[in-house]
Here is the input.
Amino acid sequence: MVISLVGILLSFSIISFFSPKDKNEGFRYYINKTIGSGCISYNQAIYSRKLRDMLPDYIGRSSVSGIDKCSNKKELIRKASRGELFKIRSGRGYVVDDLSYSYPYLTEEGKALVREIGKQFRKRISHTRLRRSDFKITSMTRTTEILGELRKSNFNVSENSPHFYGNAFDISYVRFSAKKWFITDCDKYYLKEALAEVIWRLREENKCRATYEINQGCFHVVAR
Here is the structure.
């Protein structure tokens, strides 16, 4: 009995140590890996592949409708004090992740779009056991100073990205903050495509541009 208990605790410790840093870490992550393998079919259509806007098609409009590039954080904060940018905090349907290479600020149009996606995402999943789950925003506005740091780890990062103009943000489609205890691969797939559907419908209403970033694990969204 004692040996079995020690074995369970040891397994829990090892899995917890290597678990992803999100709300599924620790004990809940251990439970998911051991007994949470059952799948539910949500009958969700695929929408992620429809999000294929190309940077050359919208970068000009993005630069005109957004802010001028900021060289550093001090300049960015100055623009926020003048009402050109707004600080984005976690809200209904979304969580602002720890941003390593950007700042949690967007233009008024970007802020409104984040809230609309969050609202519609919550509504879209409200009939499932995944209701009240949140998506995670992983990148927002960058400065040219940050670009230099980012290029040390990502040589392919664009020097003329919508992220400089305050109206673009990235949403992870692999990491969600879910209230459901047993998170399966089917759950994650459903959340991804439900989110993609919401973004695609807003795109059809000419409220945004969006790109399915396969290698980066995110949806790149730009307010129009």
Q: What stands out?
A: The helical segments are 2-18, 26-35, 55-65, 73-81, 108-124, 144-150, 185-204. Strands lie at 86-87, 94-96, 105-106, 134-139, 168-177, 208-213, 218-223. Residues 15-31 have pLDDT under 50 and may be disordered. The first strand starts at residue 86 and ends at 87.
